[in-house]
Amino acid sequence: MADSAEVTTPSQTVGPFYALPDGLLWPDGPEVVPAGAPGAVVVRGTVLDGNGDPVPDAVIEIWHADERGRFSHPADPRGEPASFQGFGRCGTDPEGGFWFRTVKPGPLPTPDGRTEAPHLNVTVLARGMLNRLITRAYFPDEAAANEADPVLSEVSPQRRGTLVAVAEPDGVRFDIRLQGDAETVFFEL
Amino acid sequence: MPAETTPQRSELLLPRYRRDDASHPALNTPEYRSSALRYPKQPLQLLPQYLTEVTGPLLGHDRVAETDHDLTTGHEGEPLGERIIVSGRVLDSDGKPVPHTLIELWQANSAGRYRHAGDRHPAPLDPNFTGVGRAMSDEQGEYRFVTIKPGAYPWRNHDNAWRPAHLHFSLFGQAFTQRLITQMYFPGDPLFHQDPIFNSVRDPRARERMISRFDLDGTVPEWALSYKFDIVLRGSAATPFEDDEEDDD
């Protein structure tokens, strides 16, 4: 019964003081795969506020499938484990910067028979944010897959670009603009 | 596109998590000044619950050491303050326990000071308290921490602003969709009425969810007081056919 569900616990801000020794920010947090892993890409970005100023106290988390589009998780009915745990976490530096080392995930099937382009699910947490923000990072060298992606194709064409990372020599750049000009597309889930 | 990434529909039956928007604060909450430049002004886009959303990191015991649930150990001596046990269950909104899930905790010391370079509150640091803990929920979703009661502390949000005593909790649940960062408060705190973060939750029943319960049965005589705090994450309907969101774009 949908209406007999219990009230859930509300979200509250992560606040400014999460970066305690041995706390949320694990030393290996940004390293989804170790240095030198085959196919490793570095994902870099900057978080900016509504003034265009860097956000030096955000936490970025990513979650994504492995290079073959697999998850090690009981809710994935395809039942083939992933080659790694696709979770990364990184606090922003004084310039608002964050980074991850990972591999580009594979495409994913949807229940209605479509195919999702390779993507990272991204969570943004920060002081001043009472709830997390959710966005997705897609890859610049996947034009055809991005074109057919069921999520990206629902986004208005003029804002779609905010969800596609930009190519860099050793990986990609994915900047996150919380508000204002070229505001990143955020999702409700 | 390789053919094997396009299975039959029936092979890909995914759980579907209930929406719980009524519990959560609005990102644009002017009374909380820091939110002004950090909330999106464009409408949020609906994200369907596909594979990436219904899975999530299953972080396990390798992330939690034997004494991580006890914030009063690991230093030369005991921290100052009121020793408390904080325990409860992680559940979903269908009342099902969420077993074997990582819970992260961080907090100020008993004087209301965080061991953090950015905390300028002129209250003493405690050499015997870092303020970080971790625990796993068990098979029944039960978890337990030992810590000290944090102090209230001033901040500059408004004239004579004070945060009520609180513990920060971070939970992963079992899916990206269940991820939750929240704060636990103490019953009867006289600072609630002026705190924009607590009051950003508009539904009184949801606000109640953030307040722990004094728990006489859980006290340890001559050693610790006890508070109960159950954490409720989004539940999942077994089949993906209910609660059609309206998607008006």
Structure description:
The complex is a heterodimer of chains A (189) and B (249). With 189 residues, chain A is mostly beta strands. Chain A has a single domain (18-177), classed as Protocatechuate 3,4-Dioxygenase, subunit A, CATH 2.60.130.10. Chain A contains two helices and twelve strands. Chain A has helices spanning 143-148, 157-160; strands at 40-48, 58-63, 87-91, 97-103, 108-109, 115-116, 119-126, 133-138, 166-168, 171-173, 176-177, 187-188. In chain A, the strands form three sheets. In chain A, strands 1, 4, 9, 10 and 11 form a five-stranded mixed sheet that branches. The radius of gyration of chain A is 17 Å and the shape is globular. Chain B is globular. In chain B, the strands form four sheets. In chain B, strands 3, 6, 11, 12 and 13 form a five-stranded mixed sheet that branches. A four-stranded antiparallel sheet of chain B has the order 5-4-9-10, with no helix packed on it. Chain B has one domain: Protocatechuate 3,4-Dioxygenase, subunit A (Sandwich). Chain B has two helices and 14 strands. In chain B, 4% of the residues lie in helices and 24% in strands. With 249 residues, chain B is mainly beta. The model of chain B is unreliable at 240-249 (pLDDT under 50). Chains A and B meet through strand 5, strand 6, strand 7, strand 8 and strand 12 of A and strand 2, helix 1, strand 10, helix 2 and strand 13 of B.
List the helices and strands and how they pair.
The complex is a heterodimer of chains A (189) and B (249).
Chain A: E1 40-48, E2 58-63, E3 87-91, E4 97-103, E5 108-109, E6 115-116, E7 119-126, E8 133-138, H1 143-148, H2 157-160, E9 166-168, E10 171-173, E11 176-177, E12 187-188
Parallel strand pairs in A: 1-10, 1-11
Antiparallel strand pairs in A: 1-4, 2-3, 2-7, 5-6, 7-8, 9-10
Chain B: E1 16-17, E2 45-46, H1 51-54, E3 83-92, E4 102-107, E5 132-136, E6 142-148, E7 153-155, E8 161-163, E9 166-171, E10 180-185, H2 204-209, E11 213-214, E12 225-228, E13 231-233, E14 236-237
Parallel strand pairs in B: 3-12, 3-13
Antiparallel strand pairs in B: 1-14, 3-6, 4-5, 4-9, 7-8, 9-10, 11-12
